[in-house]
Amino acid sequence: MSKRDYYEILEVSKNASAEEIKKAYRKKAIQFHPDKNPGNKEAEEKFKEAAEAYEVLSNQEKRKRYDQFGHAGVGGAAGGGFGGGGMSMDDIFSHFGDIFGGGFGGFGGFGGFGSSGSQRVNKGSNLRVKVKLTLQEIANGVEKKIKVKKYVSCQHCNGTGADKGSAYSDCSTCRGTGQVTRISNTILGQMQTRSTCPTCHGEGRIITHKCAQCNGEGLLRQDEIVTINIPAGVEEGMQLSVSGKGNAARRGGINGDLLVLIQEEQHPELIRDGSDLIYNLTMSIPDAILGAPVEIPTVEGRVKVKIEPGTQPGKILRLKGKGLPEVNGYHRGDLLVRINVFIPKDISREDAKMVEKLKESEAFLPGQGDEQSFFSRMKNMF
Ligand SMILES: [Zn+2]
Ligand SMILES: [Zn+2]
């Protein structure tokens, strides 16, 4: 599927200003917002498409690359944030939630907010980051420092949103109760619904003088370095939740969480299978017959292992405890060395003669009893 032009998606010209792009995105986001189009897949796609276009065009660096190289310039993981436009709804809300206006918390993402719970504590939205780990980091656990852009409590007003010396006044919409009651007529008779007051967001009072730094929100967007301790044994696709390290909430609520999505970097030689590791060892025919010392890669470096004479292809050597630890257990997996024997396809006439010679020895005939007798015959040979 070829991607549409980002400018076309947002319906702006190639030389649109940042402000124009923001406005255009806002318009699209509101038009296709899932709250307005429940269950409408097409609107959801459009909503995502617009977010992806905005993600690129709102970033000077990415926009420049896009202008120069098109989608190829910003595709894949190059952008850092999202892989190739695979933005989830949650991603969109956590990154661009503020653009929908009307303050924060209006659209808090799916599921969590929006329902008319009568008493709700303001909670900041969750942040999501991806962390790529090597097998070695997974084996030992690792401390990662990650820069995240997030909402932090405004230091100027201590997160209250009120200017110094400002007074509050009772909210006139809800008369200070923080809730509004609506009575509607339905087939079942009159229904009373209570919801959070839209004017004061349930606080019951409004600020007479807003803090100029944060425009009364009590929040500022800032970069923060977050230290994440990743335990040993984590796996691709696991999500760690670092409590309280997400976005701060408006005016003194509790912080959201930082959700860390684990990604595994593929090891050049070792294959992971749960807490076990697999290494495919290919030996030459003579080495398999005569035995040989070999080097096996492990997460702690290479180890020397002696391969016994007469080792069969398909045999699995188990190096106990050389695998990975389990994320919340005491068990440590093993390293399984799967032995394969290399059978050459193209050999010279001379080599063929050498192999022919093997035929003369009874020892090379299959079906000559069990391994035991095979070994004893081997010993007699040398
Ligand atoms: Zn402030
Ligand atoms: Zn109110």
UniProtKB/TrEMBL annotation:
Function: Participates actively in the response to hyperosmotic and heat shock by preventing the aggregation of stress-denatured proteins and by disaggregating proteins, also in an autonomous, DnaK-independent fashion. Unfolded proteins bind initially to DnaJ; upon interaction with the DnaJ-bound protein, DnaK hydrolyzes its bound ATP, resulting in the formation of a stable complex. GrpE releases ADP from DnaK; ATP binding to DnaK triggers the release of the substrate protein, thus completing the reaction cycle.
Gene Ontology molecular-function annotations: ATP binding; heat shock protein binding; unfolded protein binding; zinc ion binding
Broad class of the protein's primary localization: cytoplasm
Repeat (CXXCXGXG motif) residue spans along the chain: 154-161, 171-178, 197-204, 211-218
Pfam family, one: DnaJ_C
Name this polypeptide is given: Chaperone protein DnaJ
Assembly description: Homodimer.
Record-annotated J domain positions: 5-70
GO annotation (BP), single: response to heat
Ranges of residues in domain CR-type: 141-223
Zinc finger (CR-type): 141-223
Species name: Natronoflexus pectinivorans
GO cellular component: cytoplasm
Positions that bind Zn(2+) 2: 171, 174, 197, 200
InterPro entries the UniProt entry points to: DnaJ, DnaJ_C, DnaJ_domain, DnaJ_domain_CS, HSP40/DnaJ_pept-bd, HSP_DnaJ_Cys-rich_dom, HSP_DnaJ_Cys-rich_dom_sf, J_dom_sf
UniProt cross-references to NCBIfam families, sorted A to Z: DnaJ_bact, PRK10767.1, PRK14289.1
Residue numbers binding Zn(2+) 1: 154, 157, 211, 214
Domain notes: The J domain is necessary and sufficient to stimulate DnaK ATPase activity. Zinc center 1 plays an important role in the autonomous, DnaK-independent chaperone activity of DnaJ. Zinc center 2 is essential for interaction with DnaK and for DnaJ activity.
Origin superkingdom: Bacteria
SMART domains for this protein: DnaJ
Keyword Coiled coil recorded: no
Cofactor comment: Binds 2 Zn(2+) ions per monomer.
Location in or out of the cell: Cytoplasm
Listed cofactors: Zn(2+)
Family: Belongs to the DnaJ family.
UniProt keyword list: Chaperone, Cytoplasm, DNA replication, Metal-binding, Repeat, Stress response, Zinc, Zinc-finger
